[in-house]
Each structure stands twice: as structure tokens, then as C-alpha cells.
Amino acid sequence: MIRLNKKYSKAIELRKKGFSLTEIKQLLNISKSTASLWLRNVELSSIAIERLANRGLLGRARSKETRRKRREAFENILEKKASRLLKGVIIKKEHLQVFCALLFWCEGTKDIHSGIHFVNSDPRLIKTFLSFLRSSFNIREEKLRVCLHLHEYHSPKKQILFWSRVTDIPLSQFIKPYRKPHTAKRTRKDYPGCVNVSYYDSSLAKELFILARGILNKYGGVG
Question: Considering the domain 93-220 in this protein, what is its CATH number?
Fold first, then answer.
């Protein structure tokens, strides 16, 4: 009984200092229900309340970090799986034409009479589309043109140099950038602007369009 009274007194002391029920349970080796019963009428000081609040924030931070580590571990597994899959796939010219056509259907303009117009702001997607186009079709590099859509906070010279490196298209084939009017929206850090890559060949545009349409009709046809 003496030992129990000592634990009871210690529990009250700890609670007044801002220790949580879980902490008191662990420190005194008692059940949480016992701690809750003993301490239900203990009034907490502002210092004790602040400590409990901080402990809650710490717990949430630890929980967030645990979730982050689990998410990264899962993504790492998926990346390795994707790497093994891509390593084992043999890509032929015909496959690249299919990829190119599908990308064009998704991000290209549908006015194919004026040629190919592929619009996006993701440098990887632009570079990938051009890689497919160049490696699977016999194109003439001098017919490629690039027009940038920039905000007022962009430096045209800087962005043209950036996109020239991404596309491997000479600066001489960039036309005057289109400057979007001021919208009072916040500046988007690291946003490179939107790019319109054009290739003035209506026949090739029609070929890509019809190939993509055929793929969609074959695998996604309804009715």
C-alpha cells in the first residue's frame, strides 16, 4: 500500500509538470486506465498545458517522419521495379512511333493542317517527345520552331537558352516569345514557362493523329 501511495503521489507530481498519461504509465509501470483514474481531477498549470501541447506536436512530427520514411521506402521499391522492367524491354522503332503518336494525341494541338504543335511546360516531356519524333521519323531539323509562353517575371533570354539546351534546337529557330499579361498571381519558383514546339509538316501530323486514333479505337473503342 505504501508503494502504491508513493506511485499515486508521484503520478500527481508528474501530471502537474505536464507529463502525459502515456509517459506516467511508462515511468511508474501502471496501466493507463489507472493513471487516468488517479489524475482525472488534477488541475494543470499553463506550463503543464504548454508541455503537453508541445509533446503532441512532437508526436505528430514523429508520426509524419515515420510516414515519410515508409512512403520513400515504397517509392524506392517501385523505382527498382520500373528500372528492371525498362531494362528488360526491347524498344523498336515501331514502338517509338506509337509512343510519339500517343504523346501527340494528349499534348499536341488538334489542328493538324498546320503541322505538329506540341505544347507543355515539363522539360522532360518536351525532350522525350522530341526524342521519339527524331528517332522514329525522318524529320528535317531546320523545320523545327519553338515559341515560349512566358510570364512578366521571366527573363526571355534566360528561358530561351534553357529551352534551347532542353530541345537541342538552335536559338535561330526560336521565334519571339509570347508574354502573358500580368495576372497579379504569385511568382512560381523554378517554373520555366510553357513551350510550343512546332514542326511544319501537315502530312506527318496527320500520320501521328491517325496512328493515335487507331490505337485508341483498338484498345479503347466503345459501342
Answer: 3.30.1330
